[in-house]
Amino acid sequence: MTGRAPLDGPEADGGSASGSASAPAPAPAPATSSAPATSSAPATSSAPAPAEEVAPRKRPAYEPAARLLRPTGYDPDMRRPMATTAGFALVLLRVLAGVIVLVGIAAGWDAMLDDPDSVLDGFDPSPEGRQLALWFVLAVGAAVLLVDLALAIFVFRGLNWARILVMVVSVISISTVFVAWWAQGQEIEIYGTFLSLSLDILLLLALSSRRASAYARRNEAR
């Protein structure tokens, strides 16, 4: 009995795999393009967009009374705004201007009475009557200036009624100057009427501001 040598190589493999189906070869991978992909969206700049500027809120020229009388908020610890301090300083300047006017009246009293157009109603035209009239004018003027000085202190402390009263006096003063200029042709001089008129206008602008109003009404409940 002769031995049979074992088969090597493909013959041995073919014999063992004759009863089984051969596995399919893997499909080739799709070819990829080496060109870079381009995006259809437009390119955007990396620089940040400029921030949109917000216009400051301006106060309207006319506001209804209901909005002006609305409580501004209870804040007793509110700091005194610059508008209130400016109003206080302007009232002091108005008092100082009044003192200068009274001094000028006293210095030029005799020359004023020598004018034919000046008349002392209710006073004797004698030298004693002239002196009495001068003291009366100075006393009335000093009383008005003392009241104005007291109002300035009350405004500085933040009292709303004093702020309103000072503004009412300023409106009356401005209206009086306008009527005198319109009806009587009175000239507005730099060293006279113009000084008091400019102070009254600046005083109205300062004390009618929102901050000055809120400070004067800081103790009002909502």
Automatic annotation (TrEMBL):
Annotated transmembrane regions: 88-112, 132-156, 163-184, 190-208
UniProt keyword list: Membrane, Transmembrane, Transmembrane helix
Annotated Low complexity bias: 14-51
Residue ranges, annotated region (Disordered): 1-74
Protein name, entry field: DUF2127 domain-containing protein
